[in-house]
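User: Please predict the structure of the protein below. I'd like the answer in structure-token form so I can feed it into my own downstream comparison script.

Assistant: Understood. Taking the following sequence of 356 residues as input:
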Amino acid sequence: MQVSEIPNRVFHKDGEEFLYFGGTNYLGVTTLPQFQNMLLASFQKWGTSYGSSRSANIQLEVYKTAEDLLAQQIGTEAVVTVSSGMLAGKLALEQLQHTTDLLFHFPNTHPALMHPFSLPLIQNGKLNPFLLDPTVSRIGIVADAIPSLEVTPIDLSILKDIPSSKIITLLLDESHSFGLLGDQGQGVLNQYHLSNIHQKIVIASLGKAIGLTGGFIAGDSHFIDEIKKQQNFIGASGMNPAFLETFVNAQKVYQMQRQQLKDNLNYVAEHLLPDTALTFTKDYPVIYFDQDELLQLLLENNIIPTSFPYPTASGKLSRIVISAHHTKTDLDKMIQQLNIYTQMNSGFESDIRFVL
């Protein structure tokens, strides 16, 4: 379906109104007037674009201000911002390639973290034998903080089985958790306490919950300093400075919207009938399903979820995204259709789970 307006909580097509439960605008800030006014003011100060290398002789102080704030929130020594989450992943992977003997990836890892020479961490339900090879001492492991088709943070406990003699660097993609999870939206990195992890790195897109085009890499100061020496970093323009100033100025807005999102999720959890056809938890704003009949039911009632073939999914990805901007009336309409489907199919079992 092609539309001529940004899908907010609603959009219009051929005179009809549709409820939009898709995308990744989790906090609903991209069309929030208060947020837009902050961004407009930042554009007036910094201009619409700054096409200069971060290594040039003129340095904009807003980069340091925003990056220091990000480092404080995430709990790492340093952060560097870049123009996209995808670039953040590629730069971090390039650095890992220079500092590790082998790279491994968890199943269904996002393409941003997939290196051509990366090996699967798990084979036949067990750790890849190369992880136990005595000639391999420096190991890089990449994973999504929230794996595809999941609604809870990834379980990293299997990493405890890697010998403590290995020097392990963990690279975690928090694109779908930063701004959302943690008591202050800091993500999930610091919930993992694995004694054999030598170094923890985070990359993320800011274009999801934060609503701004850009990305970041967070880690210890040495790792970030080495990123800044890469040719692909030096030769690229930095993240738009107007976006960075908006991020700094909008902290109270983000906090307000996170609370609104929590209220919406609690409301859905309270009124949605449990159904094994749905993957849902009140702590995460996504409901996954893979039933074409449910998708059709939603579409027939002008409720539009996200549905498309996803690179790391076995088939079509269908998910309902709950945002801070959805009203209770919106949620009631969505819940009603899901409950109708549940009641129609209450006698059937599915291998998809409902989490509360």
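That's the full token string. The longest helix spans residues 251-271.
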